Amino acid sequence: MDSTPLTRKLKAFVALTSVELEVLERLHQRRRVFHAGRDLVHQGQSEQAAYILSEGWVCSYKLQMDGSRQIVDFQIPGDFLGLRSVLLHTSDHSVEPIGEIVAAEVLVSDLLAAFAQTPRLATAVLWAVSRDEAMVVEHLVGLGRRDADQRMGHFLLELGARLKLVGLGTRAGYDCPLTQYHLADTLGLSAVHVNRVLRRLREAGLLTFRDGHVTFDDYDGLVALADFDPAYLDHTGPLLK
Amino acid sequence: MDSTPLTRKLKAFVALTSVELEVLERLHQRRRVFHAGRDLVHQGQSEQAAYILSEGWVCSYKLQMDGSRQIVDFQIPGDFLGLRSVLLHTSDHSVEPIGEIVAAEVLVSDLLAAFAQTPRLATAVLWAVSRDEAMVVEHLVGLGRRDADQRMGHFLLELGARLKLVGLGTRAGYDCPLTQYHLADTLGLSAVHVNRVLRRLREAGLLTFRDGHVTFDDYDGLVALADFDPAYLDHTGPLLK
């Protein structure tokens, strides 16, 4: 019953009972495959569904009037896609698969039914959404107050911690399908600047990002550089026993 | 029974029943007064409570290693304070009253009990948290992609829309206790730059911020300048009937 990344993730917050595990499992019934190059959710769209991502990576972004793109975050297995969009009627962002993904469609009525069966699950989902918000806050602080090297280090450490929680990464590193353009639009840098920053971090012996893999050459050194305190990701063990 | 700003706010999302109104009212039992200059919640603190703000304004911020401050958002009546901090064990930010405020303490156990009584309320709180996240996302896009005038216009329009929802503002304007230092630390500008931007917006006939009051001199003109689309604030009427 510990089969889905969402289950693995929520266990960090709540010691799930067998009833809660069953309810979570049922939320994964309508699994579908989606491909790169077509948005799951469009900015400005309404009446869309939310999804639970079980395989692959997804990019959430906003387009500005001038055509520039600000990437808000990436979603990895165990994350909700477009939950905010469903609750807020109109999507404030677009959601695009990076490569092929598998995601289960979830309707608001499914969520309500699940919450009615187990209110602890409602609190767990609230935890997950709060954690997403904490990450956006960190990205905000990154853009406002960190230099390019710190920003990159912080972002790649955060992804590592998130992937580790769902069993897809270790302190040594992780597979990462992102391109330099993804990193540029996330960190507010140009693609050329991204390359320069990655070279600097590699030459400093901190981090290597090559051939779709992030290697932490000096984890503690990178944590110190980026002032990375993972407390906001809350992987300290269940609050609700 | 329509007495609290939180009730007024949640009604935008869910048509509240009398049972739900009662449950909400009970969450406001432990009301306390707090004063400026003392944080309600400290960054790094654990075991703190969450609050529902009923009177006054509050500032949420993060301090960086170098001592600089990034303001993440302001809370106004009807907003939760520190809810994310409670759910995530450790607070990722500090919460400081601006002037005197009134807030009701809420424990996680209170929330769980409320959700058990009415799962629709859980969805409504999830909506409120998602809306908070949507605002942080807008601030992120603002820092990453908007120029100083657009950033200021967007931020003051957003505050206006939020205040209007809880009955504290109109299209003409609103009372606003923020200083130029608050605006600077929110928008990633210096205090001098904030003054210059406000003068420019006033001279363009768009907006006047003086003596604790924001006046929209040309609401539609400001909306056009800032590319402000309030859809992400979701004031379109209840999704859950």
UniProtKB/TrEMBL annotation, chains A, B:
Which UniProt key words apply to this protein? DNA-binding, Transcription, Transcription regulation
Q: Does the keyword Protein biosynthesis apply?
A: no
Under PROSITE patterns, the record lists: CNMP_BINDING_3, HTH_CRP_2
Q: Give the GO molecular function terms.
A: DNA binding
- Pfam families recorded for this chain? cNMP_binding, HTH_Crp_2
Fetch the InterPro entries from UniProt.
cNMP-bd_dom, cNMP-bd_dom_sf, HTH_CRP, RmlC-like_jellyroll, WH-like_DNA-bd_sf, WH_DNA-bd_sf
Q: Where is the HTH crp-type domain?
A: 146-220
Every Cyclic nucleotide-binding domain range: 22-87
CDD domains assigned to the protein according to its UniProt record, in alphabetical order: CAP_ED
Q: Which GO terms describe its biological process?
A: regulation of DNA-templated transcription
**Stated name of the protein:** Helix-turn-helix domain-containing protein
Species source reads Pseudooceanicola spongiae
